[in-house]
């Protein structure tokens, strides 16, 4: 296993579709990729790996992504298994990114780090002592629901001032009236500061000194975002073990979530005692 990305496909989410319509769209590209694997790459698919916005139940038996209202306790695993005739293994997308960045990316060789996605939502995955934290329900690392603006915007979780409600792409558009692909300098700075503030909390609580951040908003905002995030992190992480903490871009870029989903699949086969490719 080298973590090589052989092929990819993308499809925009149509938020007007109902649950089964959304799955049908997903299945369209899944079937296309399975066919290309067999005919174009001369490969034999052995499992499906999934990274999904949380909350999720273990191995995506049921998913309730915060940005897709039509999927509430949606049985993603069983539907994918039926459609592909393959074993399906899944996890929260940011946890999948943590596996990828620890394997081949910016956290390679590190035993303790935080991986984050700042895009359509804000999520995290935490690695401590070389192990990805699972939590009681498999949703450990939900940094998007750290409070960064007391009495701030209402979050989809029901609270106020969550990082997700202040720094995600939809939140930025709601606050500014502008697409996050056309940000002002001030909103790039603000978003970075809020993320750095939340990361500092995690570093102080868990004795972590590295945060690897991907996602369309973070990577799209670039140096302005990361410089502001580092300034806020340095300001708020002042303990002897956290004051050297760094926040850096995910090295794998847009490949990270896909390689992470693959890593989730490999991990699932290993746990199930099934042979890996």
What's the helix and strand layout?
Layout: H1 19-39, E1 47-52, H2 76-84, E2 87-92, H3 93-104, E3 113-118, E4 122-128, E5 131-132, H4 163-167, H5 169-176, H6 185-206, E6 210-214, H7 216-236, E7 246-249, H8 256-272
Helix pairs in contact: 1-2, 3-8, 6-7
What does this protein look like?
- Strand 1, helix 2 and strand 2 form a beta-alpha-beta unit.
- The model has no long low-confidence stretch (mean pLDDT 94).
- The protein is α/β, with parallel strands linked by helices.
Give a quick precis of the structure:
With 277 residues, the protein is α/β, with parallel strands linked by helices.
As laid out across the biggest beta sheet, the strand order is 5-4-3-6-7
- Top CATH class of the largest domain: Alpha Beta
H/I helix tally? 8
N/C terminus separation: 7 Å
Number of domains: 2
Question: Which fold name corresponds to the CATH topology of the largest domain?
Answer: Nucleotidyltransferase, domain 5
Helix-strand makeup class: alpha/beta
Helix content: 40-55%
- Content of β-strand: 5-15%
Q: Please name the fourth-level CATH homologous superfamily of the largest domain.
A: ATPase, nucleotide binding domain
Task: List low-confidence stretches.
Answer: none
Give the C-alpha Rg: 18 Å
- How would you describe the shape? globular
Features:
277 residues; Nucleotidyltransferase, domain 5; 8 helices; two-stranded parallel sheet; alpha/beta
């Amino acid at each position: 296993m080298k973590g090589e990305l052989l092929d990819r496909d993308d499809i925009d989410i149509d938020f007007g579709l109902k649950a089964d319509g959304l799955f049908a769209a997903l299945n369209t590209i899944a079937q296309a990729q399975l066919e290309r694997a067999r005919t174009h790459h001369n490969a034999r698919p052995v499992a499906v790996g999934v990274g999904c916005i949380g909350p999720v139940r273990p191995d995506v038996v049921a998913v309730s992504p915060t940005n897709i209202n039509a999927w509430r306790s949606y049985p993603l695993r069983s539907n994918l298994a039926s459609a592909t005739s393959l074993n399906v293994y899944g996890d929260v997308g940011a946890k999948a990114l943590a596996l990828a960045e620890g394997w081949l990316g910016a956290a390679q060789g590190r035993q303790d780090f935080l991986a984050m996605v700042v895009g359509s939502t804000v999520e995290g995955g935490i690695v401590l002592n070389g192990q990805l934290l699972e939590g009681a329900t498999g949703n450990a690392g939900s940094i998007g629901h750290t409070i960064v603006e007391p009495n701030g915007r209402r979050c989809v979780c029901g609270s106020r001032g969550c990082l997700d409600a202040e720094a995600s792409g939809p939140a930025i558009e709601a606050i500014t009236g502008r697409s996050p692909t056309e940000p002002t300098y001030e909103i790039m700075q603000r978003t970075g500061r809020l993320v750095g503030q939340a990361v500092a909390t995690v570093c102080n609580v868990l004795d972590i000194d590295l945060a690897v951040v991907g996602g369309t908003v973070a990577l799209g905002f670039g140096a302005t975002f990361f410089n502001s995030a580092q300034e806020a992190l340095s300001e708020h992480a002042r303990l002897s073990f956290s004051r050297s903490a760094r926040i850096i871009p995910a090295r794998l870029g847009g490949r990270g979530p896909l390689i992470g989903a693959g890593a989730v699949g490999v991990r699932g086969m290993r746990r199930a005692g099934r042979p890996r490719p």
